[in-house]
């Protein structure tokens, strides 16, 4: 399984980011505090549906925002799929998962 595209909105220090991955080997390079680990955390959440650093989704929301959104386009053999995770803290705490545009529950993955 390969991650082909990653979309991040209001996640940690990233306001909006779209990345295409065309290689099996990818390097994230930058100064301290630029968000390299946050990219890995977003990929982790798309893979395992949980963060390796934070237990509360509300702490993943970019400062001053009310929600975050992650989308990953994955390729498995010849088939491409899209997994989306959205989390909002207002008006109530809510997390939504979508797989190929269909809303699903965590247990279905």
From TrEMBL:
Rad50/SbcC-type AAA domain ranges (all copies): 6-105
Family matches, as Pfam families: AAA_23
Single Gene Ontology BP annotation: double-strand break repair
InterPro entries (alphabetical): P-loop_NTPase (IPR027417), Rad50/SbcC_AAA (IPR038729)
Spans traversing the lipid bilayer: none
The organism's place on the tree of life at top rank: Bacteria
PANTHER family, A to Z: DNA REPLICATION AND REPAIR PROTEIN RECF
Protein name: AAA domain protein
Organism, scientific name: Leptospira interrogans str. 2002000626
Taxonomic placement: Bacteria, Pseudomonadati, Spirochaetota, Spirochaetia, Leptospirales
